[in-house]
Write a structure and sequence with these properties.
Layout (H helix, E strand, L loop, with lengths): L1 H10 L8 H4 L7 H4 L28 H11 L6 E4 L3 H11 L6 E6 L4 H8 L3 E6 L8 H6 L5 E7 L11 H10 L3 E5 L3 H4 L15 E6 L12 E4 L2 H10 L7 H11 L4 H19 L4 E4 L6 E6 L2 H10 L5 E2 L9 E5 L3 H13 L1
Parallel strand pairs: 2-3, 2-4, 4-5, 5-6
Antiparallel strand pairs: 1-7, 6-7, 8-9, 9-11, 10-11
Helix pairs in contact: 4-11, 5-6, 12-14
The structure holds pyridoxal-5'-phosphate.
Pyridoxal-5'-phosphate binds next to loops.
Length: 352
């Protein structure tokens, strides 16, 4: 039974989910597509010829960087899309899979706000399914919100702003049950444990798109680099739709170099600080609830969220007030900082 469904899934041809106009799209052909060498006199792209490190257009296919990221992530380059932050692949999945005004998408709520914004920009209805009070996901409710016009289903794990990781078995059941693309946003996966990622299960699930980012654990938010991983036909199609030179020369170079430093030491430090901050908060009378977290932030429920938010600002500490979001009444989202920053936060909280 389990086996039969698995075979069915392996055979699912996701090309039928692409928008008609995208299936037949001829992408812009850059000068670097028409000639690919490394040595020569380049008189083909109307660039300024005087070398300053960035007078040439970047590689539109980010070949070197993809090779490097492929090594770091253990994924073949044909399954990697590099975007200008995660914002770019989030927007692209709507443009590739959803007919404006006709198809819809489903997400859990509360979750990351960009899915809803990208849906609205693309004139795609977003159906939000409320998480349970403990922020667990009721998958029957989620699947019941889908219909024949649902092309995308967004899962965020660990979820922002709640911090919890979705059980792998549940993600797996949703991937098998939903006839459309599942976008699994793993922006915080490095803080949950790398082995929890679905990245290495792309071959099992033809309808899976995993999003990751260099903005959080990798410490490169300012460089804007987001990643999407999926089977080659999905990556190839997203690449045809993107802006040709979406990742600039400086970002490609700096990211390439920075990847060599790894992320383990800082992630270990942030995770141990997370444990310390959570334990300390649990003893503070002002905090009514500390939600379990697998990310580099923690959601806490307090008596007077707005009052505490303002009090923290007076002391120069800025957190995120999430108290007006459905399901998050009374909640502040607090990022784990350096040990010194966390001490400062805890000191203010203990005196508030
Ligand atoms: C921060 C975050 C991202 C990252 O966005 P970038 O555009 O890559 O900086 C993606 N998804 C979620 C859920 C996030 O919280």
């Amino acid at each position: 039974m389990h086996n039969a469904r698995y075979i069915e899934l392996k055979r699912m041809d996701v090309r039928k989910f692409f928008r008609e106009n995208i299936k037949n799209l001829t992408p812009y052909s850059t000068a670097r597509d028409e000639f690919q060498g490394t040595l020569g006199t380049y008189l083909d792209a109307n660039e300024n010829p005087y070398d300053n490190g960035y007078n040439r257009y970047p590689d539109p296919h980010q070949r070197e960087l993809k090779r490097r990221l492929g090594e770091v992530k253990g994924v073949p380059v044909q399954q990697i899309f590099i975007g200008n932050g995660s914002d770019e692949p989030i927007d692209l999945v709507f443009r590739v899979f959803c007919e404006p005004g006709r198809h819809n998408a489903v997400s859990m709520a509360p979750t990351y706000g960009m899915y809803q914004v990208a849906a609205a920009i693309n004139d795609v209805q977003m159906r939000e399914v409320q998480l349970e009070p403990d922020f667990s996901l009721n998958e029957e409710k989620l699947l019941a919100a889908t219909d024949a016009a649902t092309r995308l289903l967004f899962l965020c794990s660990p979820n922002n702003p709640t911090g919890n990781l979705l059980p792998a078995a549940q993600v797996e059941r949703i991937l098998r049950a939903f006839h459309g693309m599942v976008v699994l946003d793993e922006a915080y996966i490095d803080f949950a444990g790398w082995e929890k990622s679905f990245l290495h299960r792309l071959d099992e699930f033809p309808n899976l798109i995993v999003l990751q980012t260099l903005s959080k654990a990798w410490g490169m938010a300012g460089l804007r680099l987001g990643l999407a991983f999926a089977q080659p036909v999905v990556i190839e199609t997203m690449s045809r739709v993107k802006y040709p030179y979406n990742i600039n020369v400086v970002t490609q170079k700096l990211v390439y170099d920075r990847l060599a430093q790894g992320l383990e030491a800082q992630v270990a430090e942030i995770c141990s600080e997370r444990q310390r901050v959570v334990a300390a908060m649990q003893t503070l009378p002002i905090i009514r609830k500390v939600y379990p977290t697998d990310a580099n932030f923690v959601l806490v429920k307090v008596e007077d969220a707005r009052g505490l938010y303002n009090r923290l600002i007076e002391e120069g500490v800025i957190v995120r007030d999430r108290s007006r979001i459905a399901g998050c009444a009374g909640c502040l989202r607090i990022t784990i900082g350096t040990p010194k920053e966390n001490d400062h936060l805890l000191q203010i909280l203990s005196q508030a």
